[in-house]
Amino acid sequence: MDIEDLILISVDDHVIEPPDMFDGRLPQRYQDRAPHIVKGPDGGDLWAFEDIVTPNVGLNAVAGCPPDEYGLDPTQYAQMRPGCYDVRERVRDMSAGGVLGGLNFPTFPQFCGQLFMRAKDSDLALACVRAYNDWHIESWAGAYPDRFIALSLPVLWDPQLAADEVRRVAAKGCHAVTFSENPAKLGLPSFHTPHWDPFFQACAEAGVVVCMHIGSSSSMLTTSVEAPPEVMISLTPVNSMLAVTDLVFSGIFTRIPTLQMALSEGGTGWMPYILERADYVYQHHRAWTFTDLGGRLPSQVFHDHIWSCFIDDPVGVKLRDDVGIDKMMWEMDYPHSDSTWPHGPEALWKTLGGVPDDEINKITHRNAMRAFSWDPFATRSADRATVAALRAEATDVDISVKSMGRRKAEASGSLTATLAAAVSQGRER
Amino acid sequence: MDIEDLILISVDDHVIEPPDMFDGRLPQRYQDRAPHIVKGPDGGDLWAFEDIVTPNVGLNAVAGCPPDEYGLDPTQYAQMRPGCYDVRERVRDMSAGGVLGGLNFPTFPQFCGQLFMRAKDSDLALACVRAYNDWHIESWAGAYPDRFIALSLPVLWDPQLAADEVRRVAAKGCHAVTFSENPAKLGLPSFHTPHWDPFFQACAEAGVVVCMHIGSSSSMLTTSVEAPPEVMISLTPVNSMLAVTDLVFSGIFTRIPTLQMALSEGGTGWMPYILERADYVYQHHRAWTFTDLGGRLPSQVFHDHIWSCFIDDPVGVKLRDDVGIDKMMWEMDYPHSDSTWPHGPEALWKTLGGVPDDEINKITHRNAMRAFSWDPFATRSADRATVAALRAEATDVDISVKSMGRRKAEASGSLTATLAAAVSQGRER
User: Can you tell me the distance from the alpha carbon of B180 to that of A424, in angstroms, rounded to the nearest whole number?
Assistant: First the structure.
């Protein structure tokens, strides 16, 4: 197998929602209260919903943008690559990047729909979640069924409504739902209560994977406000470490034995250590804590229930037997700043030396197809799905990096504080 | 090489300070204000200093104790193995455990002397820090110079006094000082200021390694108060991940190019991933953040300056080339609950399959001797320092686990909150 032969499914990309996404999708009584775009004082395109105004932060839409134009300013659609928000252009960018399939997380509702949880009118919010999911399933993913794994938003504020909604979208073929890596940080019950059981039970029954993206607790770790932004950005996988540890020591998987979860953008190279540590602690401490995992070690709970995801992670690939080769999945993270686009295949290939072909295929696409019950080969033959074939379809796509007309970055001591504020905007209810 | 031939130096054990440690060690005017033992309402032996009363938490002195007597109650000396607080018995326990040398962190002053930082009378506190260090260097480590690497407390509230003290103890042969993994969490300036430069400069010049133990920020991570204690205990190495990330992105090592630090009880198996992540983030983001590490990648800064430490870490040993074989050191953690005593050699040996002898010797003792400028072989020949030789000297030591007469553990929903409160007691100034 050569790099040209890879078949790549990215289980973590992001859609910047287009301004017209709610048009005609809400009940008539709510249509004029739909989230909509307003202009900010410095020209940024902002989403307005009830009394909440939320920007498209520049750093979240930098595909094709020169790094010295990265930053935290609110951004206009006109300053983004159209592939961020236009599905036709997105697919062309995916092809130019050699990537067959993508699973796209939301942007303006935050990673798991925190925005709608904060609404004053929960009926309106429920209508918006449904409209968002219909748009995502029909107009975004549905426009190219051979290119997208559909992902739905949950109804965060009501586990029974969340169960209803996940069943509704599963009936439309959507087998992924985004959720919080730590609902306790959102002011909701933690994983150590049975509060979420109706929702997780519905996910398990409908074959829906619960995808927990880093940052979906509206929290990021850093060390001090004086630390440079690299400290906070480097530590994002720690959110997934906390989530894994939290989940394997909860009773969720004992109560719901077929539930499957994915740690989106969590990275993988740390997992063998964290699992080794959890097993060690469980064995050393359970006699006085009375924690009981029902006969399994924490690492076994992990391997039975949790899928791992990485962008560029040579250590994780090296440790793939300990991470779990049957649940590792690749990510491109388009159009975020950690993305490898348009050189995803090249970045991944560098880490695949010595990996057998069948294991490469698991990491690049077979595991994702199995996790999300998604078969792109139903409508597109495998030989038309390779890096080489897709890039041949998109030779006219300009992938060069060029100015987007954004403000040039300037040295500032307050970047970390600004970044933390942007992340935490989904916290208060 | 066989398990019997290992020569083991543990760079992380703990002393439970004996009640008489300050006798005759303070200036006359302060002697009656020295920290001293008082009886708690339920019989626990507590340390009293100014208006602060701090317990010996049971979990911190469990060597030889059955796991169902582990817990968070204040403990009496009579309920501990004498090796916790009696240096003669400690050395016998070390021998019975096959261990040549130990570096012992403080207990009642907290991991880096937070207690004395909280004092109202800073002259008294300075006298206490000096008295503590003299006691540790002369009466504890000094009682068996071939068995202990001496460790001093810093003067946390004044970097110039801290520099003076580290020079004073270095002149007595003490080449390790304990410090906070994140001083910002203690209300002190962060690593991203030049505040600590006089102290770190003195450490570098005097060949003193700055040892940052997990928990020395008086902070532990958990996910929610409802999570079982295993979540918090499993996540302790995350403190070291935060510290590493913080340090490599600070300018400290550019300003003080010979400074050496150690991540005590941090574990090692996560390091290759965290370093890979830091390098990735630095390369992706520095154009807009203007962070400048002076020509080195974060991973290079790490390998040049930071020593790693582990208790039982098969993944770390497997990844030793990426962790850095020349700076990996072993730990026993006597008498804490994560300790492998008295079976440290057996636990370590299980992870050493396929490791060449010279690399085993680096991990077990050569690196520690080099880091701390400590040569036990000056007074004890290497053939008298092996697991077999030491155990042969201590055949009369009873290492069986037996009741210490403590209260049996009971299931409780508040263990995590109690644990968090115990950890955070050193925070408020």
Answer: 27
Residue A61 sits at the vertex; the CA angle it makes with A408 and A419, to the nearest 5 degrees, is: 70
Distance CA A251, CA A196 (A): 12
Rounded to two decimals, what is the model's pTM? 0.96
**pLDDT higher than threshold 70 for residue A426:** no
The total number of structural domains in chain B stands at 1
Longest pairwise C-alpha distance within chain A: 65
* Structural domain includes residue A227: yes
Q: At residue B380, does pLDDT exceed 90? A: yes
Q: How far apart are CA B321 and CA B298, in angstroms?
A: 17
Looking at the DSSP bridge assignments, the partners of residue A210 are A177, A261
Q: Answer whether residue B429 is part of any domain.
A: no
- Kindly state whether A277 is in contact with chain B, defined as any CB-CB distance less than 8 angstroms: yes
Residue in A71, A192, A274 closest to B227 by CB: A192
What ipTM did this prediction achieve? 0.96
- Rounded to a whole number of angstroms, the distance from the CA of A258 to the nearest CA of chain B is 22
Do residue B67 and residue A285 have CB atoms under 8 angstroms apart?
Answer: yes
pLDDT band at B327 (very low <50, low <70, confident <90, very high): very high
> pLDDT category, A427, cuts 50, 70, 90?
low
Confidence of residue B416 (pLDDT cuts 50, 70, 90): confident
| B86: number of Cβ within 10 Å | 16
DSSP E strands in A20-93: the ranges are: 36-39, 45-49, 52-55
Domain that holds residue B27: 3-424
* A residues 118-137 lying closer than 8 A (beta carbon) to B: none
List all residues of chain B from 18 to 37 with a beta carbon under 8 Å from chain A: none
**Residue A429 lies inside a defined structural domain of this protein:** no
Nearest CB neighbour to A289, from listed B280, B313, B415:
B415
User: Mean pLDDT, to the nearest integer, of A136-154?
Assistant: 98
- How close, in Å, is residue A244 to chain B by CA atoms? 10
CATH code: domain of residue B46:
3.20.20.140
Cα B308 to Cα B8: distance, rounded to the nearest angstrom: 16
Per the domain annotation, does A12 fall within a domain? yes
How many C-beta atoms surround the C-beta of residue B292 within 10 A? 12
